[in-house]
Amino acid sequence: MPGSPRRFSPPPGGSAGSGLPRRVRPRWRAPITMATVFATGAAVGLLAAQGGGATGTVAGPAMAAAPELANGKDPNATVLSGGAQWWIWSPGPGELGANPQAFSFDQVVNGKSVKRVGVGIVRNEDTPDASLATKYLISENSGQIFNDYSGLPSNFSMVAPYRLRNGDVLSSNFVPTANGDGTDGFAMFRSSDVGKTWTEYRAKIVEDKWQFGWYRIHRDMLELDDGTLLLGAYGNGTVNGVRKGYSLILQSTDGGKTWTQRSAVNGGTSYSTNELGFGRTSDGKLVALMRGDEPAPRPPAMPLTQAFSDDDGKTWRDVKPYVPPAGFPNNGIMPKPMLMPNGQLLLTYGRPDNNVVVSRDGTGRTWDEGNMLYSRYPGEDPLRRWMGSSGNMDIVQRTNSTALAFGDRCHNVWMCREYSHDNAVWAKVVDAKGPNIGKIDLITKANEGVVKVSGSVAAADARFPEQRLQGAIDGSGEYRAAARFSDRAAAARGLTVELDKAYPINRFGLMMGKGEPGAAKVQFSMDGKTWGRPVRTGMRTDYAMRYNDFAPQQAKFVRITGDGTTPLTAVTELELYAAGTYTFENDAVGSIPRGLKDTRYALTADVGNVPYYQHSKTRLALQDNDQTARAQATIPNPTPGATQQISFGYEGWGYGSGAIWEILGKDASGKEVVADRLLFAPVYNPNRHVVKQWDGAAWQVIGEAGPFVPNKGWMTITLNSTGQGTTITKDGTTMGTSSKRLAQVTQFTGLRVFTGEKPEDVGNMEHSYDDITFGAS
């Protein structure tokens, strides 16, 4: 049955020690020919192992061609991708629900840092005279599962939810209304327990610069270092004698009780705008994106408008049309920029479709890559192309490099008629990965007790449980989700991370106290006593991690201390990378891992029934359910050499006839060839694994080792290649050394892996690899 251990028995006439498992034969099989072997990426020797090309034909349905081999991105490339999507609310036809607005706040559950994610779904018609009706959902586990939530009233629209440095959460209503004294005001809710309970009050807009006919509160809130709060809004009014639509920044110096006009983002320009999204950039500026103020709700001709502020939103410059990545629309609605802890700046917007784009350096000066997250429209003519999904969407942080995007299937009443009003709201994972492939999964290792963090830091309390030692590696870039030093002396002693083993560290990402000037030095040690030459950050103010690359330093301990006259206030986030190692922790789930070549059915996986290897949750999975072609991947050696040692975790969920491992190298002419071809096969009885070598004509057993590792069980494999052969070690036990080299090589260049001895040997087969580490033997 699916998921149960695969039992292996010797084939008829074979011995138990032969290492060849009995295979379940398919009802039909395509003839195996020389062309088939080459088309599936197999070697000629594998054909001979089956007794030559088949000549008979068995009737059966036509087989589709195997997919072409594909390469992962360059290891130094950044990645933007839309991953898993699921429906968090999906009622029957006729039930209105669209325009999701969301928040994510840090909390600690059972000792682990997770996000509390809330979503408000608008259930009223999108008309000015409709009474507000909002449905709320809540997730206590970073958006995995959502449940109904009644903590906020249905006549509140939950705009710009934001957590202050003092722990309070504020959120405003979308539509201000008149106060009794003729001023405008709006409902606000405050929570001191991360959105579990709320208190309502009424905030007041004080018009100290311009008179506006009406306001809407829109999108984002931000707290400055001095406690001033900024809040986005839009409306129609007169600024410097010009009446039009304006995108505004409101400010409050009394904790959100009263708000005054700080700036009109598009003031002094020809652009008329409304919906506003704004936020920090990696270089500390503010960036704002604005929707064009169109005279009628039709496909917008005016592009989104972008602007920057160097003085925290008092004045704005470079107000000009937004320039998207190639192939993406420059117009749309509901723009939302969001700086990720790893320094990638995301921007979502919709209509047409639901889009996310990224500014790789986090500054927003250029938008480099895009991903269309969801598309649904009833026709190609301009207006119907604009319909379907409303395009109203939101995005919140999940980890230092992943976010949750939210959108809808279609708008309330209008734009949904052709779909019988089948409203629903979706969530989707967005991966925004920076360069490099050797990221160490510090937080999973710390949660499982194999990585230790020490230092004198401010203690966690009821309001800030995330403010603790593990806050330095928890994947959150929020102000309190940090290891905050209790005083200058504590900062001088610093923070120490003890790793589970020694790694060749060649890169780190560090975010010091969020928005606070500081300088740090990072040092490495094998024993925690003798420290190497420090890597210095220099004086800076961090709003996201910044990265340093250097020659690999073998280290089991990492120490971060203050460096200079300005004290180090906190370590908000730390990442470490190992040279020459494919860990898959910095690859987008569902994608081909970066750096891999000539892959088929190879992807990055982090969930499922396979446990973690070495306390890190992401792995390479080869998923083979194709009777015409094996799953495969080539893993290049980052530093080719005259010898090669490869160590990795291997797991065979549905071993089939085992895994084929090809040791690659370059011959004297510079051509890449197979030096050794190995078959690592299970032997259920007697309780062993066997390794064989292809000698050019047949498989030859070169060694065995036990015990047999069942499905979902990891083992550590080492392949040590020299000029004489390759020695195979399983969990520290040497199995044997190859003696028949297929080709002589002058330089070893990597490893190629396959599922199964034969292409048709499939069924519930998934081979996993993790922590593939290259070094000289």
From TrEMBL:
It holds the Pfam family F5_F8_type_C. Residues 432-579 form the F5/8 type C domain. It comes from Nakamurella aerolata. PROSITE patterns: FA58C_3 (PS50022). Residues 1-24 are annotated as: Disordered. It comes from the Bacteria. CDD domains: Sialidase_non-viral. This is F5/8 type C domain-containing protein.
